[in-house]
Amino acid sequence: MNNILEVKNLSKKYDGFALSDVNITLPKGCIMGFIGENGAGKSTTIKLILNLIHRDSGEISVLGLDNITDNLQIKEDLGVVFDESNFPDTMNAADVNIVMRNIYKKWDEPVFHSYLDRFSLPLKKSIKEYSRGMKMKLSIAAALSHHAKLLILDEATSGLDPIVRDEILDVFLEFIQDEEHSVFLSSHITSDLEKIADYITFIHKGKIVFSEPKDTLLYDYGILKCSAADYEDINKDYVLGSRKNQFGVEALVQRAKLNTLCTIDSASLEDIMLFRIRGEAI
User: Fold this and answer.
1) 217-251: per-residue pLDDT in tens?
2) Cβ pair 150, 80 in contact under 8 A
3) What CA–CA distance (Å, rounded) separates 245 from 223?
4) Which listed residue, 56, 85, 169, 201, has the most CB atoms within 10 A of its CB?
């Protein structure tokens, strides 16, 4: 088994929204960033992977197992963190340890305490007194302390300051070092994904726009800057989105294929996402 997660032709329909033929493949030892605007289908996809909602069609394999028929077995090897702490505010870290060791067969108390020490989380302080960053660190500590093989995180770093985010990103990079573990990370903070992700999957209005190696995306795409007149001479086959401004035209282009004397700057993941969503054909 080389892929830790495989999603094939996944569909889910609601009134006013449809997730259509979603395909995602995450190899072992990799981090995948999952990007898209609010309402694009990121959380719905994650809930379907976790078997929290019923899918209309498609297949989902986690750790080589079907996510419905082998649900309980899969949950033992999954670490999951949502954008809000799911631990009651009246609990403390010691209580979390007691609860979790009765849930997971492979719960590792020394590992949990080592993360508490690393994150400077007090054992007896109630969670209601934690900052948002402390709550996220506690959730991540719990997710990592039962020897999970796959971490799934839904906006877990949103709202955190850069220092806390950087600390957490280091933990994710350490987690995949043995090339047996993987991370599936939904995030609006594309700069974080540029630091750590191996693959980027972009979903828009319930459909996958692309799912590619990050380095390939950043190498292949660029931001063309030129006058409106020069833009008329550009081969539009290699333009993926464009917009006018007071100085001329900016466009997201496949720079390796486009033959032009105009300036082409590097494109960030945020540039790629914005131009693919909001760019217009001119």
Assistant:
1) 999 999 999 999 999 988 889 999 898 888 899 99
2) no
3) 14
4) 201
Closest C-alpha to 144, from 176, 179, 121: 176
Model pLDDT for residues 121-161, shown as the tens digit of each residue: 999 999 999 998 899 999 999 999 999 999 999 988 887 88
What does the pLDDT read at residue 207? Answer: 96
pLDDT at 279: 62
Could you tell me the maximum CA-CA distance found in the chain, to the nearest angstrom? 68
For 281, residues 6+ apart whose C-beta sits below 8 A from its C-beta are: 236, 239, 242
Tokens 């995030």 belong to which residue?
187
Burial category of 238 from C-beta neighbours within 10 Å (exposed 0-12, middle 13-18, buried 19 and up): middle
Which CA distances in Å does 201 have to 36, 98, 142, 167, 207? 9, 37, 26, 24, 10
Q: With a cut of 50, which residues of the chain have pLDDT below it?
A: 281-282
Residue labelled with tokens 């082998």: 70
Who contacts 238 (Cβ-Cβ below 8 Å, separation ≥6)? Answer: 253, 254, 257, 258
Question: Do residues 184 and 258 touch, judged by C-beta distance below 8 A?
Answer: no
Closest to 44 measured CA to CA, from 155, 276, 206: 206
Contact 10, 55 (CB under 8 A): yes
